[in-house]
Amino acid sequence: MARLIDIQDVTMLPAKLSIRLGDILSFSATGGRVCSSSEASSLAKADVVRLLGAFSQGVVGPAGEIVSPAGPPSSVLFLASSVGAASIEVMTGDPWHHVRTTVLDVTVEP
User: Fold this and answer.
1) What is the pTM of this model?
2) What is the rounded CA–CA span in Å between residue 90 and residue 30?
3) pLDDT per residue as tens digits for the range 60-104
4) Cα(12)–Cα(47) distance, integer angstroms
5) In the prediction, which pLDDT does 44 show?
6) All domains of the chain in start order, with CATH
7) How far are the Cα atoms of 51, 103, 110 from residue 68, in angstroms, in the given order?
């Protein structure tokens, strides 16, 4: 069964992380991307881990309306979509003034 792996503090992680196929990494962060060092490896790495997006928290109000705070995203999701290895960057902090970028090497196992 796939797991939703919640990571509150990216600075507490080792530089290399092993996850299983189908897992979703959920970071408390404002942005992220899948890295590649060359065009040839870009396609392979993009297939291993996919950025699902950066999201803001939302809740359902009593009348069924969706309420979200103003401001930058607070969560970034990545999907382990095939077996292999990839590098991802996770951006934390204020996206307009004090961005901190952390690079993680991710290995996706069956």
Assistant:
1) 0.86
2) 8
3) 999 999 999 888 899 999 999 999 999 999 999 887 888 999 999
4) 26
5) 52
6) 4-109 (2.60.40)
7) 22, 29, 36
Q: Cβ-count burial of 92 within 10 angstroms (0-12 exposed, 13-18 middle, 19+ buried)?
A: buried
Supply 80's token pair. 């382990």
Residue 93 CB partners (closer than 8 Å, separation 6+): 30, 99, 100
Task: Outline where DSSP puts E strands in the chain.
Answer: 4-7, 16-20, 24-28, 31-35, 49-55, 59-60, 66-67, 75-80, 84-94, 98-109
For residues 81 and 83, what is the distance between their CA atoms, to the nearest angstrom?
Answer: 7
- Residue 91 contacts residue 35 (beta carbons within 8 Å): no
C-alpha to C-alpha distance for 66 and 3, rounded to whole angstroms: 26
Count of positions (residues) in the chain: 110
